[in-house]
Amino acid sequence: MKSSSIVALALFAVLVAALLVLPGSLKQQMQATLFQLVSPVLRTGASVEAQIGGVSGGLKRLDELERENRRLRLENEQLRTTNAMLRGLEQRVNRLTQALGFREQSPFRLIPAHILSRENATWWSSCVIDRGSLDGIAADMAVVTENGLVGKVTSVSRNVAVILLISDESLRVSVAIEGTQEQGIVSGTRSSSNYLPELRIRFLSKTAGINPGMKVLTAGTGGVFPSGVLVGTVKDFSVRELEGVAVVQPSVDLASVRDVFIVSGVK
Amino acid sequence: MIRFFVVLSALIFGAFVFQLYLPPVLPFHGAAILLVPALYFYGAVALPFPLMLALTLYTGLLHDLFLVPQTGANPEFPAGLSAIVYALPGLIMHGFRPLFLRYRWLWHLFLAALSAVLTPVLLALSYAILSFARREFFYSDVIVWRILGPGLMSLVIAPCLFFILTPLALFLRYRPGLKGAS
Question: Which residues contact B26 (CB under 8 A, 6 or more apart)?
């Protein structure tokens, strides 16, 4: 082996080791910087994709009408999401009022965002949105639509942010199953993706009376996800040797969702 | 040589961005269409060892920053880990460099096929690391398809890219192993 090759190999090993020991926050920052760098390309790509979709739909619309339509649609979805969340809150308030007494709850502050791209990674499920720190987005904020939970924000740059989707195995959300006392942790599986999502709740009681069609809602523990947000519906419940396992169908179609809302806090 | 390295690095960067818009192949259980491995493996066989290592580090780091969500203080798959994942099949590919230097189209075709065979190795290694980090190993038909599917598609993609990259290298006046190569 040539001496230059040995030096190159040693340098490679040192650089890889240095990269691996970098703090997680710095890696998040590196990822955010990279997406900030390619954000103009992503925005152009998303608009081309939308235009292709428009042409394939056989419709030609004026830019102004399209913008207005988009604004109204966003407004409508925002109102519907707020409404759905308020309903969830109302149920929670009623339950707490009955059990513990009155407790004030506030509706959420939502920031609308558009999905620019979906990472087609084999083992991870994430996407990029067109909002960043300039819009008030921060890491660990929950992402929802009017249909339910989408995921959470991981890396944030000035104009774009990366969202980890609920179909990813590494995103774990504490949930409650409506109509039961059962609580558990829902997560995707390694074979899950945006297009073929598969969520599971493990470590449930074997005797839990869980039936297909029951709603799965966020429990609100952990501080990242607000309580009462719909995650999905139970598709199947099976009993293993030590635990009950529920398969959950996500309420949001992760393959086709385009507009999302980031929960930035309570009003 | 440096010019070719820079152009190949730019192509890999572009391929990562382009891949974001490629939908998964549902008949292959959602397997991804991957362009980057074929480009990388071409670099692994065409470039001298030090530059091949530089390309490995660059590709591995970009892979992790583009595709792996970097969550929390201790991410389960930290950025940079893919450099090691890419290095292992990359070194195998580099071992076949003498065949590449013969400049016979049949050998180039063989190397393109080899790069397609090594593509699932990248995915399998990532999966093994991920399984180790999550302390749970399982496999299913879907997992097998997600690993082998990109390799099958690469059997078509890699020869096309190889036969584009060789004229590109010549255009950039890079002809490795021959006197007078820049």
Answer: A195, A196
Q: Best of A42, A127, A143, A190 to disrupt the B interface by mutation (most B CBs within 10 Å)?
A: A190
User: Distance (Å, rounded) from C-alpha A30 to C-alpha A42?
Assistant: 17
CA–CA dist B99, B167 (Å, integer): 17
**Chain A positions in Cβ-Cβ contact with residue B67 (cut-off 8 Å):** 119, 121, 124, 126
Q: Which two tokens stand for residue B144?
A: 């097998």
**Residue B120: its chain A contacts at CB < 8 A?**
none
Torsion of CA B177, B178, B180, B182, to 10 degrees: -30
* Nearest residue to A233 (alpha-carbon basis) of A179, A192, A154: A179
Cβ of A26 under 8 Å from any chain B Cβ?
Answer: no
* A81, A189, A213, B111 from A85: Cα distances, Å: 6, 27, 20, 56
CA distance A81 to chain B (A): 26
- C-alpha distance from residue A48 to each of A44, A51, A259, B32 (Å): 6, 5, 16, 21
What is the 8-class DSSP label of residue A213? T
Instruction: Convert the pLDDT of each residue in A51-66 to its tens digit.
Output: 666 555 555 556 677 7
Candidates B25, B67, B70, B152, partner chain A, best to mutate (most A CBs within 10 A): B70
- Contacts of residue B49 in chain A, CB cutoff 8 Å? 2, 4-5, 8-9
Residues present in chain B in total: 182
- In Å, how far are A149, A165, A193, A200, A223 from A146, measured between CA atoms? 9, 16, 21, 22, 21
Instruction: List chain A residues with CB under 8 Å of B75.
Output: 24, 27
Higher-scoring residue by pLDDT: A220, A97:
A220
Span A241-263, average pLDDT: 86
pLDDT of the residue at B59 = 95
Please name which of B154, B32, B16, B66 lies closest in space to residue A120, comparing C-alpha atoms.
B32
Point out which residues pair with A174 in neighbouring strands: A185
B17 in Cβ contact with A128 (< 8 Å):
no
Gyration radius (Cα) of chain B, Å: 16
Q: What is the pTM (predicted TM-score) of this model?
A: 0.78
Amino acid (one-letter) located at A239:
V
How many C-beta atoms surround the C-beta of residue A29 within 10 A? Answer: 16
